[in-house]
Write a structure and sequence with these properties.
globular; 36% helix; UDP-N-acetylmuramoyl-L-alanine:D-glutamate ligase; alpha/beta
């Protein structure tokens, strides 16, 4: 990968409700892949979102907001009979988050069967880097999952790279075994793995970071970064600590911000260790603000 690469992120992007002052709520947007896409675009990378939204005014507003951030939405399909997904975030006194979702009929679930899907897949196949997550797989039917994995193979066959984030949400899967099956198939067609240790432990797949790295093929030449939350991350058996501690206001989107900082740095030629520090800095800024994608300010490390 190199600076100027075309990055395509593929997955679900949703409306986000978060607590405001008093009894009020703030309406923003979020979703793991769009969070990372915005961070990459803010940092100056060429980023496209591949997904599906509704034909309603809120979907149009979301796409306009992403375009304003620099994300190309030309690969976002429109479903006339569907709406975007919605989730609400609540945080406790320590900044730890909990989510409530309304997404069962979201347009993104149909992204591989809508009119224009073939053209979207063909364009995404021309990516220098394709990025998706286990949530992307979770929201799709089996036919869509197969189509996504085939897209990964196309990107790699054309000389591009695939990065996969093992973002596990138990409520999206019938059981952990099904999630593990699709996670393993995604790992097999990926060049870069971005698992979170807590997710691997919850799935019953790892006891520690070394276990997780082994499961993700770190010994087979795959670039694997195991995210350890407040303990930093592990690359090639070495823990890269967080450079500066921050007070956590809202942990929403922390992993997505890390991925954005890490991938941007790698695209610019940084070593994995230096890229991890860039990821830590961006995640640290992110969790010091409310919302999965806080408004950019002068302290943002882009």
């Amino acid at each position: 990968m190199a600076a100027g690469a075309i990055v395509t992120v593929i997955g679900e992007a949703m409306l986000e409700l978060s607590r405001g002052t008093g009894d009020s709520w703030n309406l923003r947007y979020g979703g793991d892949v769009i969070n990372t896409a915005v961070h990459l675009a803010r940092a100056g990378d060429t980023v496209r979102l591949a997904s599906a939204m509704g034909a309603d005014p809120m979907s149009a507003d979301l796409c306009a907001a992403w375009e304003a951030e620099g994300v190309d939405t030309s690969l976002v399909l429109r479903a006339a009979d569907r709406l975007p997904g919605l989730y609400a975030i609540e945080t406790d006194a320590t900044g730890e988050r909990s989510f409530h979702y309304w997404r069962s009929d979201a347009a993104a679930r149909r992204m591989f069967v809508l009119p224009g899907s073939d053209a979207m897949v063909a364009a995404a196949g021309q990516s220098d880097l394709l990025y998706f997550s286990l949530i992307t797989l979770a929201i799709l039917p089996d036919e869509g999952r197969e189509a996504l994995l085939a897209l990964c193979e196309t990107v790699r066959a054309k000389g591009g790279k695939v990065a996969f984030d093992g973002n596990y949400r138990a409520r999206l899967w019938p059981d952990a075994a099904t999630a593990c099956h699709w996670r393993d198939r995604a790992i097999a067609v990926s060049d870069m793995g971005l698992p979170t240790l807590a997710d691997e432990v919850e799935m019953g797949e790892a006891d520690d970071a070394q276990d997780a790295a082994a499961r993700w093929g770190g010994a087979d030449g795959r670039e694997v970064v195991v995210k350890l939350g407040g303990d930093g991350c592990m690359i090639d058996g070495v823990v890269i600590a967080i450079p500066q501690r921050v007070d956590v206001i809202d942990s929403s989107g922390a992993g997505d911000a890390f991925n954005g900082g890490y991938l941007h740095a790698r695209l610019a030629g940084a070593t994995p260790a230096d890229a991890a520090l860039a990821g830590h800095r961006l995640a640290g800024w992110n969790i010091g603000h409310r919302g999965a994608i806080p408004a950019r300010d002068a302290a943002a490390p882009y």
